[in-house]
Amino acid sequence: MTKSEAIFERACKVIPGGVNSPVRAFGSIGGIPQMIRRADGTKMEDEDGNVYLDFVGSWGPMILGHNHPAVREAVIKACEDGLSFGAATQREVEIAELICGSIPNVDMVRMVNSGTEAVMSAIRAARGYTGRDKIVKFMGCYHGHSDALLVQAGSGVMTAGIPDSAGVPKGCTKDTLQAVYNDADSVAQLFEQFPGEIAAVIVEPVGANMGVVPPKPGFLEALRSLCTKHGAVLIFDEVITGFRLGFTGAQGYFGVDADLVTYGKIIGAGMPVGAYGGRRKIMEWVAPVGPVYQAGTLSGNPVAMAAGLAQLTILKEHPEIYTKLNEMGDWFYGEIKEILKETEFRAQAVSCGSLGCIFFTDVPVCDYATAKMSDTSMYASYFRYMLSRGVYLAPAQFEAMFLSAAHMRSELEGVLELMRGFFAM
Ligand SMILES: *Cc1c(COP(=O)(O)O)cnc(C)c1O
Q1: Does the beta carbon of 276 lie inside 6 Å of ligand 1?
Q2: Residue 1: CA count within 13 A, CB half-sphere
Q3: Is 137 in the pocket of ligand 1 (CB under 6 A)?
């Protein structure tokens, strides 16, 4: 028995499924998870001493690579002054100034502890501001695990075969309307069907929780004009795309303005951080200025803020990181497309900047229905092939592959050779 196996056996007795987040259990690809001991740069090491080239990057936060020295030093230094005060600090102001000073349409920002909390709170603010109850989400988009949003929620629940979670009362989702990704008409129809009732449209500007599904040209623009026309709030859930497609996220990358933006993942550099922000007239509805209540004992705690501030400062000061990352993504996925073509394998590579994935279907993927056509058992074989050769991919089809600034071309060339081996089989 390996050390990972022994630890996982213990884990399963005291933690549901042995994990603190379902995708980590490797349920959809078979086998048991590696217990990770440490990580540096692009490499992760498990308890048995196996080293992997990592493409999960803690699901996105590690855009500079694991254990970045500047982030680590900032955290250690912050710890010396105490872990939490439950009181206002200067560092919270610094990170808020950095964000509001750079991100279009974000005049004010509130820190929370996860992406889930960020989205839940942004929706509450949008409902308070508009005085309306209904929200529109897209099938296959994931916005965290709060009750109202656990409807056709992509990735985790998708591979677990749970269309809608148990334990969510019908009343909690009755105001959640569902639209089709990349189909603005489906949203227009909802606005017609529920005039004056829709508070917000929430979207992942690049779908990254049903595999990677980029927006078709004009889709985000159409959402913008529909929301403007009907007085609804457009929320970009930038928990994955924020500070990844560029420092200004999807708003900057696609040139489309949102009213509210939610963050998570990169913003905390690996610490539990989320944030929501947007136009002043909406954010001033949030307590204690306004009547929309939202709070957090550990929100904005000094250690998490130090980590986030260190990472965001590097990203802000080095825009060339994004040029390089996006070029690397274009090159890498371009090469994968070539390999798939040469080997005539029934699969397609899809990417947007440093986000990408391979769908095991030849039907062009543009939404939830087409993403679901992917052959997940083929993904499982592909995953196991790569893992046994030292490449750690997302242990589920409907997740993105994350490139970081630490990935070197030589490492990616090695991965392409391995992929060629699998696809030529
Ligand atoms: C990960 C994710 C969330 C939830 O963030 P947590 O920190 O896991 O709560 C919300 N929205 C999107 C788009 C995400 O990818």
Answers
A1: no
A2: 9
A3: no
């242990």: which residue's tokens? 395
Q: What is the mean pLDDT of each run of 10 residues along the chain (425 residues)?
A: 96 96 87 95 98 98 98 98 97 98 98 98 98 96 93 65 75 93 98 98 98 98 98 98 98 98 98 98 98 98 98 98 98 98 97 98 96 96 97 95 98 98 95
Please check whether residue 126 is in contact with residue 192, taking contact to mean a CB–CB distance below 8 angstroms: no
- Number of Cβ within a 10 Å radius of residue 352: 25
Pocket lining: 119 vs ligand 1, CB cutoff 6 Å: yes
How many Cα atoms are found within 13 Å in the side-chain-facing hemisphere of 422?
A: 25
- Shortest-distance Cα residue to atom 8 of ligand 1: 115
Question: Which sequence spans correspond to the domains of the chain?
Answer: 3-67+319-423, 69-317
State which ligand 1 atom lies nearest to the alpha carbon of 144.
4
CATH architecture of residue range(s) 3-67+319-423: Alpha-Beta Complex (3.90)
Q: Specify the CATH number for 69-317; select among 3.30.465.10, 3.40.640.10, 3.40.50.720, 3.50.50.60.
A: 3.40.640.10
Q: Where are the alpha helices (DSSP H) in 218-354?
A: 219-230, 249-254, 280-283, 302-317, 320-343
- Which atom from ligand 1 is nearest to the alpha carbon of 240? 15
Is the distance from the beta carbon of residue 209 to the nearest atom of ligand 1 less than 6 Å? Answer: yes
| Residue 240 to residue 63: CA distance in whole angstroms | 11
Give me ligand 1 centre to Cα 236, in Å: 12
DSSP characters over 181-193: TT-HHHHHHHHHH
264 within ligand 1 shell (Cβ under 6 A): yes
Q: Which residues are catalytic?
A: 142, 237, 265
